[in-house]
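// run 5 | inverse folding | seed 20
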C-alpha cells in the first residue's frame, strides 16, 4: 500500500473532514464536543504528525455544535450546520492570519438558512452539506431527501431566516454527491427489512430539478 499516516488523534474523534486544495489545508470537526473546527496544514505532509495539539483551533463560538462542514475554496469561507440552533451558517476565513495565531472564526458568522423540524434527521447516517460555489447554491441532506439553499443572502431577513427549498423528495436517501461538471446529483437510498436484509439503490437526477 502507498498510504501515508498523517496523524493520530487521541481522546477526540474527528467526525467531519474537508479539504482546501488550493491552500493545502484540512478542516476537521471535533466530534466529542462538536464546538470547534481544527485547521491542519498539509505542507510537508510526508513528515507530519497531525493531532489536536499541532492543528489550529479556530475558536468557533462555544455555544454551537457543528455536525457538518464544507469549504468554499475560491472565497476562503467555511459553511457548517449548527445545532442546537439548527441553522446553516457561514464563516469568513481571515487572509491575513499570522501563523501560529489562528483566525478568530467564532467572532463573526452569518446565518443563511433555518432548518425546520421536518428537515431534521432522525437516523444514524452522517449529515451531508455540499456546495456549488459557481452557482452559489448549497445542498443539505434532510429528513425528506435533499434541500437546496443559497450560499449568500442579498439582505438580512426581516422575519426569520429562509428555509431550504425541497429538491429531492426521497426519505430513504442516506448519502449524496454532486457532479458539478455535468450538473447532476447522485444519491444512495437505503432500506432494511426486519433488521436484516437490505435494499440499496443508486439514483441520479439533474441539478436543475
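// decoded
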Amino acid at each position: 500500500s502507498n498510504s501515508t499516516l498523517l496523524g493520530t488523534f487521541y481522546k477526540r474523534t474527528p467526525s467531519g473532514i474537508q479539504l482546501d486544495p488550493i491552500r493545502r489545508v484540512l478542516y476537521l470537526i471535533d466530534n466529542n464536543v462538536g464546538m470547534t473546527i481544527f485547521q491542519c496544514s498539509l505542507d510537508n505532509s510526508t513528515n507530519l504528525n497531525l493531532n489536536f495539539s499541532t492543528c489550529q483551533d479556530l475558536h468557533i463560538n462555544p455555544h454551537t455544535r457543528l455536525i457538518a462542514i464544507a469549504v468554499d475554496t475560491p472565497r476562503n469561507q467555511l459553511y457548517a450546520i449548527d445545532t442546537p440552533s439548527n441553522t446553516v451558517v457561514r464563516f469568513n476565513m481571515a487572509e491575513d492570519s499570522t501563523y501560529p495565531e489562528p483566525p478568530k472564526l467564532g467572532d463573526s458568522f452569518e446565518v443563511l438558512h433555518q432548518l425546520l423540524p421536518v428537515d431534521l434527521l432522525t437516523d444514524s447516517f452522517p449529515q451531508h452539506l455540499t456546495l456549488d460555489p459557481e452557482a452559489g447554491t448549497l445542498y443539505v441532506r434532510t429528513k425528506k431527501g435533499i434541500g437546496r439553499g443559497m450560499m449568500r443572502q442579498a439582505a438580512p431577513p426581516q422575519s426569520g431566516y429562509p428555509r431550504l427549498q425541497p429538491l429531492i423528495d426521497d426519505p430513504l436517501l442516506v448519502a449524496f454527491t454532486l457532479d458539478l461538471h455535468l450538473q447532476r446529483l447522485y444519491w444512495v437510498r437505503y432500506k432494511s427489512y426486519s433488521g436484516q436484509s437490505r435494499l440499496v439503490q443508486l439514483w441520479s437526477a439533474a441539478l436543475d430539478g
